[in-house]
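Protocol step 4 of 6: structure prediction from sequence.
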Amino acid sequence: MPRGYFITFEGLDGSGKTTQLRRLAAWLTASGNSVVSLRQPGSTPLGDRLRSVLLDSRSESALGLISPLAEMALMFADRAQAIAEVIEPALAGGSVVLCDRFTDSSEAYQGAGRSLGSQRILEMHAAVCNNLQPDLTLLLLPPLEASLARARRRNHRDARMQGTDENRFERESDEFYTRIHTAYQQIAAREPQRVVTIANDDAGDNSIDAIELRIRALVSTRIPAGLSAAPANLVHET
């Protein structure tokens, strides 16, 4: 059985990456692929517990200020568990693995946002994750202001309606997010074979459906011969 294919989605919260991951998963499944989807942090019992610490804005009231190094270590603990429990077994079984965030997020958020530096993140990835690299990274990078406004609205709505609170990062300053946005651009420039930027502020149709078709067309050219994919113009079922 051929090894599967590992695709990660990156970008600021509010960039639309989670929506596009779900749509791509549905399309690939309809195309006959075995698809495994996960998010980071989360998607394992340990990861879900770590997510509640890392993203809940109430964590620091209960636990005290989480240091940047502790935050980085917890993110990598989640990632190492996901690799061992979900990602590597799925790839070994020939599945397409779609992951909402991976180490690029740590490089952007902890490396740049928390000013820990890229080198420390990359060394941690090599040591803790055996340097596992995605085959393809889709970086959704709309304008910074639009992403932040959308993420903050969504998280406040979820906190009000569902009782969930994942606002810890959204409370950070615009300068924090500017550093993250710049770091993502630098990662894409450094690794152009792996990272494809979907900058939906370009001229043209930037609707959710249009971006979905752009992603399908791209993925169709990257899926290895042993795996199947439907034509990029397959109508999305809602």
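Step 5 (inspection) to follow. The CA atoms of residues 8 and 232 lie 19 Å apart.
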